[in-house]
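One such given next:
>
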Amino acid sequence: MLSQQLVNGLVLGSTYALFALGFTLIFGVLRVINLTYGFYFSVGAFVALWLARSFGASIWIALPLGSLAAGLVAVVVDGVLLTRLRRTKAGELPSLMVTLGAVLALYSLMAALIGTDIQRFPFGFVGSTALEFAGIRVSLVQMLIVGTAFVLVAVLFLLLQHTRLGLMIRALAENEDAARLMGINVDATVVAVSFLSGLLGGAAGVLIGLNFNAIQPFMGEAMMLRGFAVIIIGGLGDIRGALVAGILLGVLEVLTAGYLSSNAKEAVGFTILVLTLWFRPVGLFGRAQVKRA
């Protein structure tokens, strides 16, 4: 049924959008391609899983704590790997190479400590309640995923547009040197951006783990590919674009799997990505930069 497939696509797309928001925040503000972002996704899911298994924590406790843990890990990892590159203005390629090596090492370390077997949340971690109307079934998990994603998006937008920290982040995104001259604590703002991006990635990890009830160390790898597609389709560094492109990709993947083939859905993101680069290289919401001599 088309309406049910659209609901499922909205749920999946919400997690894609949430994941891509943190990714696009890093690129849009710090101008670095941080491949360790996929690791923060896995950290959030595993911290929530550990809290649920070891302490019987509910989703209302495990989700925020898993997200916070991912944010703190992001601050440490980004500080160690990227601080020197940022201060020397090394550019995007060095950050790409450094974080590529780091994420491989981090994934391997996590796999050695936890194992590579798929793990699942305890039974009853989230209730099995579901609502049905007009032939559409929406589970409590699905409502939680969509609701959390949209709440975090709204909070992030309000933070960026209506707080002093948001003003500092936007100033840093425009020009780091000018922001520093205006008295902005650039180092503290970079830490805040790393924390926020890690928090969003960790929340997405918990929600994806809930959606598929399958958690393993390398779960962030596949999401990184979709994250790249989403931020390019939506427009590099644009939050609105990440939200719209994430939901669009999720809906199209679900429709493709439901009406064509589950194997074909993997090609959807790549196809849309190529079409975007052909016909609108700046993305749906991106703006072409004017270069003057």
Remarks:
- The chain has eleven helices and two strands.
- The chain has a mean pLDDT of 86.
- Residues 2-30 form the longest helix (29 residues).
